[in-house]
Design brief:
Blueprint: E1 9-11, E2 17-19, H1 38-52, H2 58-161, H3 168-171, H4 176-317, H5 319-322, H6 334-337, E3 348-351, E4 361-364, E5 371-373, E6 378-387, E7 391-397, E8 402-410, E9 419-420, E10 425-429, E11 439-448, E12 451-455
Antiparallel strand pairs: 1-2, 3-4, 4-11, 5-10, 6-7, 6-9, 7-8, 8-10, 8-11, 11-12
Helix pairs in contact: 1-4, 2-4
Length: 461
């Protein structure tokens, strides 16, 4: 925070005040006070300068308030971060549950396909065993058929070689009956060989058909097994992908939980820091209030001492004047002063004149930076004072008998010597560090014999 500086005031031999330019300070040259006695303004200015000699205590308070605002901002950021992390964790939990469900379904399907594959393997092995047995039978029958064909061929060759003598056994028959028996025997022998060959050929053909059928079954089962294997491999790849996704989701969940835990710890520490700063601000405000009270007491004490010191020589030089009646509010007719406009539109009196010995009326506007207006027509007389603790003070002379003062101004809209109209904007509240930013100290001064007496402004509204 930029440290507020205190302007230096100089008293010139001509009896007029000059104000060193500061922030929002008027830049025009001051003009003579005119009919208003410089002594009265000097007395009041000396009281203000007492505040200038004291250190500016607002810096520490402003720093604490800035720390409080920053801590509150960080708390809001952390709260938003916690909410975001909780939402992300909920989304990650939902995604993890969905992937787990999909993985369990996939593993169930893989188990079912593996069981089907095992069953197909068992059936294939059984069929392959049957094919092997059929092959063995076919081989044995083909061997037997080959042997029979060989014997039959040998028999035919023998019959051809012995064609001339084939009928000798018949001729050796002793009777017709014996001849018939021998003929039937020779025919039966040939028919038997032929029938055996036919039956073997039929059996071989049947076994070959069975082998073909079994081979087709094995082929079909192999195709089914290959299809199951392909699906199992695809599902296994999908399972591996899901396992990778689940591992990544669990890693993200772990990271979010770590961040959430750290953010919660940081938020707890920030709450403690907020409590500490709030306690420090309260203590600092109490300290500043006490310093302000002591400053006011010291100001009134020194002002009273100066008044007594200044009144004593005048009493010695002009006893008759000193013996006259003391001017108070009741002795000043309203017609002499006139009606004043309330200086803060929509404002209210937050502390009346005379409270805690104050010679001003504390008026609060609706908000910080409230506009402050001239109570009546007049001229802005020098000096326009600036004190860091109480801001700018503008003095307006309305007549030979009346002045008004407005303290705790900023962003001045008038300058010394300028003529103002009733209700004209002078500036805005909030110029001082020790006065609330929505307040203005309003004084009404009555001029009597070169002296200024501050009276209750409420009597002139």
């Amino acid at each position: 925070m930029r440290r507020k500086t205190l302007d230096t005031h100089r008293w010139k031999a001509s009896g007029s005040w000059r104000v060193a330019p500061g922030r929002n300070a008027p830049t025009s040259r001051p003009k003579a006070i005119g009919p208003l006695s410089a002594l009265g303004v000097l007395r009041w200015a000396l009281g203000l300068l007492l505040l200038c000699s004291l250190p500016v205590f607002s810096q520490n308070l402003n720093q604490l308030q800035q720390q409080l605002r920053e801590a509150e901002r960080l708390q809001n950021v952390q709260q938003q971060r916690i909410q975001s992390l909780n939402r992300e964790l909920a989304q990650l939990d939902a995604a993890t549950q969905a992937r787990l469900f999909e993985l369990r379904s996939l593993e169930g399907e893989i188990s079912r396909l593996e069981r089907e594959r095992a069953e197909l393997s068992r059936q294939i092995k059984l069929l392959q065993s049957q094919v092997s047995e059929t092959e063995a039978k076919i081989q044995a029958l083909e061997t037997e058929l080959t042997g029979l064909k060989g014997r039959l061929a040998a028999l035919i060759n023998s019959l051809h070689r012995e064609q001339a003598s084939r009928y000798l056994p018949l001729l050796r028959a002793e009777s017709f009956t014996d001849l018939a028996v021998r003929v039937r025997w020779i025919d039966a022998l040939g028919a038997r060989q032929t029938d055996l060959i036919d039956r073997i050929q039929v059996t071989v053909a049947s076994l070959q058909d069975e082998r073909t059928r079994l081979t087709l079954l094995v082929k079909d089962l192999n195709e089914k097994q290959a299809e199951r294997e392909k699906r199992i491999q695809a599902m296994a790849a999908r399972r591996q992908t899901l396992q990778g996704v689940l591992a990544d989701l669990r890693q993200q969940q772990t990271g979010r939980r770590v961040l959430l835990r750290e953010t919660l710890v940081s938020q707890q520490q920030l709450r403690q820091e907020l409590s500490r700063i709030s306690t420090a601000i309260a203590a600092e405000e109490r300290r500043l209030a006490e310093i302000r009270r002591q400053q006011e007491e010291e100001r009134r004490r020194q002002e009273e001492a100066r008044r007594k010191q200044q009144a004593q020589p005048r009493a010695e030089q002009n006893p008759s004047t000193n013996a006259g009646p003391v001017v108070d509010l009741s002795s000043i007719p309203r017609e002499l002063v006139g009606s004043l406009l309330f200086p803060v539109p929509s404002g209210r009196i937050s502390a009346p004149y005379g409270q805690d010995g104050n010679d001003f009326q504390e008026i609060s506007g609706p908000s910080a930076g409230s506009p402050v207006q001239a109570a009546a027509d007049g001229v802005v007389i020098p000096p326009i004072l600036y004190v860091a603790n109480i801001g700018y003070t503008v003095t307006i002379q309305h007549s030979q008998n009346l002045i008004t003062l407005y303290t705790n101004l900023q962003s001045l809209q008038v300058e010394e010597g300028q003529r103002v109209r009733r209700g004209q904007l002078l500036g805005y509240t909030g110029g001082g560090a020790l006065i609330a930013p929505e307040q203005v100290w309003f004084r009404v001064g009555i001029i009597n014999g070169g002296n200024i007496r501050y009276v209750d402004p409420s009597a002139f509204y």
